[in-house]
Specification:
By secondary structure, this protein is mainly α. It contains 21 helices and two strands.
Length: 461
């Protein structure tokens, strides 16, 4: 360019380069900032599904309140503190993230006394987004009954029943009083119509029997004997029916020291039966879970926040029952430490076979599971004997559990010949049974009674 010295040209070129550098840096930082915003917007999960996944996978260490610190840190606002990509890596495999040298992962590990967070490789990317959506924007709880409303409804229903009983009792008493008044009026009228007491007494109606009972008994002796025989047989049947009803406790529902709703745990929270009754698969008895099993969840679940409330109960009621577990195991939820002072829970047993009866849970739960479910048309083998426990607030005995009840089941339940247990130990017996009962048919159904299911020594020895 004319009129410009070489020095000026050099200065202009340097300024031009600086402008280009500023432009590139500005473009880079704007793109980085945009990527951060996009990363935050990438969390497009289902908060309701995230709440379920959080409850299932995370509540052992993190509070459902999200603002409280338990074993792990509070998770409220975690999506603002860490990037979307980092959170996915941390949740999937936090150990690998630490080993990669990530400073945030290492700092978090050191802050919480080097307690390793569980690995969750089974969670999909969408599952993690759902959980993060829950921590970012928890779904608002559904409209629930307040304690005052529940109490008012309960009192109203109870008052209605009591009022009806009072009205019926009042009318009964009024009828008795009216009958007494009528009798007194009748007596007064008779006294008015007589001149003396002797005349009044002479007018009293007297019932006279003019029938000769000896002749009647002589004439209808056979009928009398028949009636005596009938009443004797009826008495014998009554004694037999009484004896057969001993220890038949269908509907038995005792009050437990801690109120435990199977409906809340099994139905609403989808806890598997064998999580608590773990020995049912491996042992003779299903077992009563220890309070330590309860603490697996209730170490972090300190109060009831569910939507389901049984009639006559309240959230405060359920929360107080949780506190009873803490008293039993000596747990202080405020300090999160055990005191060492324990108090065993004296549960009242509901199902209890007599000592002379042998029953093995594992044999039915494992070996006979599939065929029992088909025979009884249930989705869980436990329901075949214990009924719809997932709908029971308080568990009760659902069947009679008599010998006849068991035998009828053995006569109608088909044996699964393809079961590995039977193939390994009773292959020769099954081949013999197939030949004996096949009658030229390929598909045969052998019930439990055919393999000794109704022999006395199987259950009584």
């Amino acid at each position: 360019m004319p009129g410009l010295s070489s020095t000026n040209l050099l200065l202009m070129k340097n300024r031009q380069k600086n402008i280009y550098l500023y432009f590139i840096f500005g473009l880079f930082f704007s793109m980085a900032f945009q990527n951060m915003l996009v990363a935050q917007d990438q969390i497009k999960g289902n908060a309701e599904n995230g709440a379920k996944l959080f409850k299932k996978n995370c509540t052992a260490c993190h509070s459902t309140d999200l603002t409280k610190k338990l074993i792990g840190p509070p998770l409220a606002g975690v999506t603002d503190r860490r990037s979307h990509e980092w959170l996915h890596k941390w949740i999937k495999d936090n150990k690998a993230l630490r080993e990669s040298g990530d400073k945030y992962a290492i700092a978090n590990y050191e802050e919480y006394n080097q307690l390793e967070m569980n690995l969750f490789p089974q969670l999909s990317e969408q599952d993690i987004d759902d959980i993060l959506a829950f921590t970012k924007n928890p779904p608002s709880p559904k409209e629930e009954k307040t304690l005052a409303t529940e109490t008012a409804n309960f009192q109203q229903n109870d008052l209605g029943g009591a009022t009806t009983k009072i009205i019926v009792l009042g009318f009964t008493l009024l009828a008795i009083i009216l009958l007494g008044i009528l009798f007194k009026l009748y007596t007064l009228i008779r006294l008015i119509n007589t001149n003396t007491l002797e005349e009044y007494q002479a007018q009293k109606p007297a019932i006279k029997f003019s029938i000769d009972l000896s002749k009647v008994l002589e004439r209808y002796r056979s009928v009398g004997y028949a009636l005596i025989g009938f009443f004797f047989l009826a008495a014998l049947y009554g004694v037999w029916d009484f004896l057969m009803g001993i220890d038949i406790n269908k509907g038995y529902k005792p009050q437990q020291p801690i109120y435990f709703s199977h409906k809340i745990h099994t139905n609403n929270n989808s806890i598997d039966c064998q999580y608590c009754h773990s020995s049912a698969k491996y042992d003779k008895v299903s077992g009563i879970p220890t309070a330590n099993v309860c603490m697996n969840c209730h170490m972090t679940i300190t109060e009831y926040k569910g939507n389901y409330i049984e009639e006559g109960k309240s959230k405060e009621f359920y929360t107080k029952e949780i506190q009873k577990i803490y008293q039993s195991v000596g747990w202080d939820p405020s300090t999160r430490k055990y005191s060492g002072k324990t108090k065993p829970i004296q549960w009242v047993r509901i199902h209890n076979m007599p000592d002379f009866v042998y029953f093995n849970h594992s044999q039915h739960v494992v070996a006979g599971e599939e065929m029992i479910k088909k025979a009884k048309n249930v989705d869980i083998v436990c329901k075949a004997c214990h009924g719809q426990v997932q709908e029971m607030d308080e568990v009760q005995m659902d069947n009679n559990f008599t010998m006849g009840w068991c035998i009828n089941c053995h006569r109608t339940t088909v044996v699964n010949m393809e079961n590995k247990y039977y193939i390994e130990y009773f292959s020769k017996l099954h081949e013999k049974l197939k030949k004996q009962y096949s009658n030229g048919k390929r598909d045969i159904k052998i019930t439990v009674d055919a393999v000794g299911g109704i022999e006395c020594g199987k259950c009584h020895y």
